[in-house]
Design a protein that fits this description.
Layout: H1 2-10, E1 28-34, E2 37-44, H2 51-64, E3 71-78, E4 100-107, H3 115-133, E5 139-143, H4 151-155, E6 163-164, E7 168-169, E8 172-174, E9 177-181, H5 192-195, H6 199-208, E10 215-221, H7 228-236, E11 241-246, H8 252-265, E12 270-275, E13 280-282, E14 287-289, H9 296-303, E15 308-311, H10 316-324, H11 328-331, H12 336-352
Bound molecules: adenosine-5'-triphosphate and magnesium ion.
Length: 353
């Protein structure tokens, strides 16, 4: 009863910078209310130093606004961020994904801008570049779009991941890329409502219970916007950076910026901006038509004070590659669209060192 009273009040508080409340996000470990005194204990992770203070102030303010509450005691346990332990190449006890050198997410504000298409093509392009430069490279691709996983189709990954022992599963390999996705675990008929509450849990399991092994890079495909998946990811894994995908429209800038801001809040560096569907090339006279206008990519990069990584044309072969599960950089690496993607892949490798 007394706990419920406090919980209901805490539900009015959103996780700073997000539209989801701290209760439904599972941050509250303990709450009590006795003789006008509220006690709240919560656990957070994240690397922003001011964050626990902001949250504590917000909780105190909200609870004290209620007439029944006379005093508030907030205890915040900061789980030490695992951030950047990856950079040293691993082996650190307690670190998430210790054998993964770099973790980079692909994000956007708006849906359907080509994140997943970029994620699979970049994974294949980076794998090829690294393999050419050293003899081996291992790239992973984690699909954190729990509601609408599209990575398996786009990269032609199929089959059930193999179980190893009681708790671990193996990613499925396609074109040398290790892939894990909800799409490999449940069939397409499984209702979305069933998957809904599982976003956080799924992402944690993708980090802890998938046998990724040693990876040079783990790319992460996200659903659009700033929902549970983005927050869960930032809470679960030490991200080395995020790449923002946008389209050329003027209006795209604001949406892309909103999508990127949450990563800034949790101190994840924005590595750069890709503009997708930039132009249609008439291959007979080399003329470009800018169907969606111009400027979205460079303007977004400027607004976010990050690099503009380049533009990708609209081309039927990119879409067909996705439909057939053979990324264009694999089926036709010399195509001008593949060259555009490859040069962005090189840029990302350079940025990550
Ligand atoms: N440059 C391009 N040229 C032609 N088609 C493209 C291009 N980029 C993406 N597409 C097509 O657009 C559609 C949407 O792309 P994709 O699924 O990658 O977007 P998304 O941002 O991941 O979408 P969501 O927000 O739903 O996750 C797909 O059919 C894809 O094949
Ligand atoms: Mg997608």
């Amino acid at each position: 009863m007394s706990e419920q009273f406090i919980t209901d009040l805490l539900k009015q508080i959103n996780y700073p910078g997000f539209s989801r409340d701290i209760v439904s996000f599972g941050l509250i470990q303990e709450s009590r209310f006795e003789n006008g005194q509220a006690f709240v204990k919560l656990e957070v992770s994240g690397s922003e130093p001011t964050f626990p203070k902001t949250l504590k102030d917000e909780i105190e303010k909200t609870l004290l606004e209620n007439d029944k509450v006379e005093g508030v005691n907030v205890q915040i346990i900061v789980k030490k961020p695992t951030a950047n332990t990856n950079a040293q190449g691993g082996g650190k006890e307690g670190a998430v994904l210790p054998e993964v050198k770099k973790i980079v997410a692909i994000a956007s504000g708006k849906g359907g801008v080509g994140k997943s298409t970029m994620a699979v093509n970049l994974a294949c392009a980076i794998e090829r570049i690294l393999t050419e430069n050293s003899s081996s490279a291992k790239i992973g691709l984690m699909d954190c779009d729990v509601y609408g996983p599209s990575v398996p189709l786009l990269i032609g990954a199929s089959g059930q991941p193999k179980a190893i022992g009681e708790n671990q599963i193996e990613p499925v390999e396609s074109y040398g890329i290790k892939v894990m996705s909800m799409g490999l675990l449940v069939d397409e008929e499984t209702p979305v409502v069933w998957r809904g509450p599982m976003v956080m849990k799924t992402i944690q399991q993708f980090a802890s219970n998938v046998e990724w092994g040693e990876l040079d890079l783990l790319l992460i495909d996200l659903p659009p916007g700033t929902g549970d998946a983005q927050l869960s990811l930032a809470q679960t894994m030490p991200l080395d950076g995020v790449v923002i995908v946008t389209t050329p429209q003027k209006a795209a800038v604001d949406v892309a910026r909103r999508g990127a801001r949450m990563f800034e809040k949790v101190n994840v560096p924005i590595l750069g901006v890709i503009e997708n569907m930039s132009f249609l090339l008439n291959e007979e006279n080399n003329e470009k038509s800018y169907l969606f206008g111009t400027g979205g990519g460079p303007n977004t990069a400027q607004a976010l004070a990050t690099s503009f990584l380049g533009e990708i044309p609209i081309h039927e072969e990119i879409r067909l590659g996705g439909d057939h599960g053979i990324p264009i950089v694999v089926s036709n690496p010399d195509h001008f669209a593949s060259e555009a993607i490859t040069s962005i892949a090189e840029e990302i490798i350079t940025i990550l060192g």
